[in-house]
């Protein structure tokens, strides 16, 4: 499966699924390394709760509003529990998003918000 559509993009639209099967789409920042996508979000967010219950997801590159810029891809997403891997993802995100990421995370620290790193493994490209 080609990952070219994700190169040079700033956002992905991550669709997680509720218990009733209804999809919830959320545009998020991401990084890609060796064909795997990574993102960070608030640890207590509903998307983390949904993917911990059901790791099946769909993902597509998008603009900041979530409008797709490519083809939806099925995958599986997992919360990263290894501190070293989570730190690596944090470093990749800082390298890509720089000062803006640091400012957002500084505000999060002031609010005592915990962050979670997520690993997204893509399967096959399908059009929806």
Number of strands: 7
Strand arrangement, largest sheet?
2-1-5-6-7-4-3
Radius of gyration: 14 Å
Number of domains: 1
Topology order in helix (H) and strand (E) letters: EEEEHEEHE
User: Separation of termini?
Assistant: 16 Å
Q: What structural class should be given to the helix and strand makeup?
A: alpha+beta
Largest sheet: 7 strands, antiparallel
Q: Which architecture does the CATH hierarchy give at level 2?
A: Roll
- Looking at CATH, which topology would you report? Pnp Oxidase, Chain A
- Low-confidence spans: pLDDT under 50, at least 5 residues? none
CATH superfamily: Electron Transport, Fmn-binding Protein, Chain A
Name the features.
128 residues, Pnp Oxidase, Chain A, 7-stranded antiparallel sheet, globular
Give a quick precis of the structure.
With 128 residues, this protein is α+β, with helices and mostly antiparallel strands. Helix content is 28%, strand content 38%.
Describe this structure in words.
By secondary structure, this protein is an alpha+beta fold. The chain has a single domain, classed as Roll (Pnp Oxidase, Chain A). Helices cover 28% and strands 38% of the residues. It is built from 2 helices and 7 strands. The protein has helices at 46-53, 83-110, and strands spanning 11-17, 23-29, 31-33, 36-42, 56-62, 73-79, 115-125. A 7-stranded antiparallel beta sheet has the order 2-1-5-6-7-4-3, with helices on both faces. Strand 1 and strand 2 (23-29) form a beta hairpin. The longest helix is centred in the C-terminal third of the chain and has 28 residues, at 83-110. It is globular and about 35 Å long. It starts with 10 loop residues before the first strand and ends with a strand. The mean pLDDT is 89.
């Amino acid at each position: 499966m080609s990952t070219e559509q994700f190169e040079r993009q700033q956002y992905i639209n991550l669709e997680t699924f509720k218990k009733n099967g209804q999809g919830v789409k959320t545009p998020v920042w991401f990084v890609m390394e060796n064909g795997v996508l990574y993102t960070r979000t608030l640890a207590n967010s509903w998307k983390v709760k949904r993917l911990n219950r059901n790791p099946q997801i769909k993902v597509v590159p998008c603009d900041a509003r979530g409008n797709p810029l490519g083809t939806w891809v099925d995958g599986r997403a997992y919360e990263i529990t290894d501190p070293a891997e989570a730190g690596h993802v944090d470093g990749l995100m800082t390298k890509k998003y720089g000062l803006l990421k640091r400012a957002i995370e500084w505000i999060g620290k002031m609010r005592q918000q915990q962050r979670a790193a997520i690993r997204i493994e893509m399967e096959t490209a399908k059009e929806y």
